[in-house]
Design brief:
alpha+beta, 24 helices, 28 strands, 41% helix, globular, binds adenosine monophosphate, EC 6.1.1.14
Length: 690
């Protein structure tokens, strides 16, 4: 796709220059009073060239801005989806009667039902399948926890301010919008310029504050609302601060993620799990981020539901017992090398990516595969789902590897799930701050003889030389790793003294032979103690749901062709209501039958809705298609009813007593609509639809 866009841009530049030459030729002919036939022919040629140019422009426009599989523009498509979502109360801007607040949304009745179905499937697919330990921790978190995790110091985005009005913007978003707009709307830019802008988009997350600021200046980007100049980018902490209790002396924050609640409970969870690794803990809950300028509707909000898994594993063995179940999956993967070299994501076999070391380890690969299955079973289009590896700087320094599940929507590719191997960072950070050992043990079947490094600082000697700094020198000596210690030992033996840098003092001191003894001793050990590594899949539930809305939405013409009807093709798994029950016309007998069916649906645990309004059946079908209800039962006799499937509009006829059983089977996924279609008489009723 990139190649054809590239060649179209080149063709456009060439065509423009041919048009200019032809324009000159026409002018020259006119100036030389050439005969009319020659002038007309030259003009005709010019017009033909202009037509060719406009056709290239159209192709280029479609290649950079069209909605896949549709001629409707992305914005118009999005507007149709959002209008339906808002119109049918899937979501509502929060505090709407007071004007609303950017980045805060309510879920209305069908939105709540979809969310609860998605979460139920998440629990089934992850918590139940992997025997995870689910916890539920508070949103209000004391400062010390988020200080230890690094959020107080580093949970920031780069912000720029309108220098005159003070309005704030996210620096990377302004640069991203500029690049996208140029690529999509300025068809006159050269293929080289387009490639440069695309490269910036590819490495956007990798740019430092200085690099971002320099690009904003280079491209002359100004405040979008006023065109005023912008400040240099600077970090803004995204956490909502609060205080716990009335005194104001105990600072806290609304948690920006749920993970920390799991880390601080590691010791107890490990014990609960019989002191065995690997195990995973999971948490579903609200997260809060004071986003700088949330714009993309439900995609970037200030309070959202996260579903997070922390899988604790031995750092020396990151194999996974169920890895083979996902190794053969094939889907779009986008490793960092391909991003940097300007290629696009390619369909890749997961097992190959793991065996070639593109994905760091089996457990990380296992979760990537499970996330793929989760999202596609929900109804995410597999061709608009890719796994993108983080670029080197984008990834935290301690992380071993990191992949985002990105879903393509009308806003572009959106990070919906982050899957990271965070090594032992989080547990170490909380162990250092709290002093509580957050470690695991591996018991040896037989005691092992090991050589242990023993560093014994001679405190009396050190005290005489370093006085008040003695403690820091002792700590630094004890913290040496094996290589540092053995190097010091050999220097002390040959030279009698050695220069030693003490970080906590910020200076280099001289250590003499009499100040420390370093040796290796043989010891019998019964177990190994280590800090587990953590593999963390983190799901933004709201983002997944919004992308699902876009992937499920389509328009179909009414039978008369004069109206477009909105439909969500949700699978029964996520549909907010599984079926509707319609008496065909208002009459007591049909309503009584509808009530009997409703009772049996309730007993079978199937969410449904009765609509006894006298509205035409076609209108009632259209209303529920717009809610994505997959099946409609229409009562048109006392003995049997029809069941209509939403997307095909096909209908079967079943006995009243069978209706709930058939519904249960197809909505639970035990059978498919194709099975029902094969097993029951078909009902054809043109009149029923309209
Ligand atoms: P992070 O911890 O930043 O990797 O975020 C984890 C997940 O939370 C992401 O993959 C997103 O799906 C989701 N997420 C992050 N920020 C927001 C936001 N402002 N609004 C909605 N979802 C978000």
């Amino acid at each position: 796709m990139a190649a054809s866009e590239d060649s179209l841009r080149r063709a456009l530049v060439e065509k423009q220059s041919t048009i200019e030459s032809q324009g000159n030729a026409v002018r020259a002919l006119k100036a030389s009073n050439a005969d009319k036939k020659a002038v007309d022919e030259a003009i005709e040629k010019l017009n033909a060239l202009k037509l060719e140019k406009s056709s290239i422009e159209k192709q280029l426009q479609a290649s950079v801005g069209g909605n896949p599989g549709s001629s409707v523009s992305k914005e118009a498509f999005r507007q149709a989806v959002v209008n339906t979502l808002v119109g049918r109360l899937f979501f509502i801007p929060s505090f709407k009667i007071y004007g609303g607040v950017a980045g805060l949304y309510d879920y209305g009745p069908p939105g709540c039902a979809v969310k609860s179905n998605v979460l139920a499937f998440w629990r089934q697919h992850f918590v139940l399948e992997e025997n995870m330990l689910e916890v539920d921790c508070p949103c209000v978190t004391p400062e010390v926890v988020l200080k230890a995790s690094g959020h107080v110091d580093k949970f920031t985005d780069l912000m720029v301010k309108d220098e005159k009005t003070g309005t704030c913007y996210r620096a990377d978003h302004l640069l991203k919008d500029f690049c996208n707009e140029k690529i999509q709307k300025d068809l006159s830019i050269s293929a080289e310029k387009a490639a440069e802008l695309k490269h910036i988009l590819a490495v956007l997350d990798d740019l430092s504050a200085e690099e971002l600021g320099a690009k904003i200046k280079e491209y002359g980007i100004t405040a979008p609302d006023t065109r005023n100049p912008l400040s240099d980018p600077y970090p803004f902490n995204l956490m909502f601060q609060t205080s716990i209790g009335p005194s104001g002396l105990s600072p806290g924050y609304m948690r920006p993620e749920t993970a920390q609640g799991i880390f601080v409970n590691f010791k107890d969870l490990y014990y609960y799990n019989g002191n065995k690794l690997p195990f995973a803990a999971a948490q579903i809950g609200q997260a809060f981020r004071n986003e700088i300028s949330p714009r993309q509707g439900l995609l970037r909000v200030r309070e959202f539901t996260l579903a997070e898994i922390e899988h604790f594993v031995d750092p020396d063995d990151k194999s996974h017992p169920k890895y083979s179940e996902v190794a053969d999956l094939e889907f779009l993967m986008f490793p960092r090398e391909q991003q940097i070299s300007g290629q696009s994501a390619k369909k890749t076999c997961l097992g190959e990516a793991v065996s070639k070391g593109i994905v760091n380890n089996e457990t990380l690969g296992y979760f990537i595969g499970r996330v793929y299955l989760f999202l596609t079973r929900l109804g995410i289009d597999k061709d608009r789902l890719r796994f993108r590896q983080h670029l080197a700087n984008e990834m935290a320094h301690y992380a071993a590897d990191c992949w985002d599940a990105e879903i393509e929507s009308s806003y572009g590719w959106i990070e919906c799930v982050g899957i990271a191997d965070r090594s032992a960072y989080d547990l170490r950070a909380h162990m250092d701050k709290s002093g509580v050992p957050l470690v695991a043990h591996e018991k040896f079947s037989e005691p092992k003889e090991v050589e242990k490094l023993v560093i014994t600082p001679v405190k009396k000697e050190l005290g005489l030389s370093f006085k008040g700094n003695q403690k820091k020198v002792v700590e630094a000596l004890e913290a040496m790793n094996e290589k540092e210690a053995m190097d010091m030992k050999s220097s002390l033996e040959t030279k009698g003294e050695v220069e030693f840098h003490v970080c906590t003092l910020g200076e280099t001191v001289t250590i003499k032979k009499s100040m420390v003894s370093i040796s290796k001793e043989k010891k019998k050990e019964h177990q190994r103690t280590f800090t587990p590594s953590v593999i963390e899949p983190s799901f933004g539930i709201g983002r997944i749901i919004y992308c699902l809305y876009e992937h499920s939405f389509y328009l179909r013409s009414s039978k008369t062709g004069d109206e477009h009807l909105n439909v969500f093709r949700f699978p029964p798994l996520v549909a907010p209501i599984k079926c509707t029950v319609f008496p065909l016309v208002q009459n007591q007998l049909y309503e009584d039958v509808a009530k009997i069916i409703s009772k049996s649906l309730t007993a079978a645990g199937i969410s449904h809705k009765i609509d006894i309004t006298g509205t035409s059946i076609g209108k009632r079908y259209a209303r529920t298609d717009e809610l994505g209800v997959p099946f409609a039962i229409t009562v048109d006799s006392a003995a049997s009813v029809t069941i209509r499937e939403r997307d095909s509009k096909d209908q079967i006829r079943v006995n009243v007593e069978e209706a709930a059983t058939v519904m249960k089977s197809v909505t639970d996924g035990n059978t498919t609509w194709a099975d029902a279609w094969a097993n029951f008489p078909h009902h054809s009723s043109g009149s029923a639809e309209e």
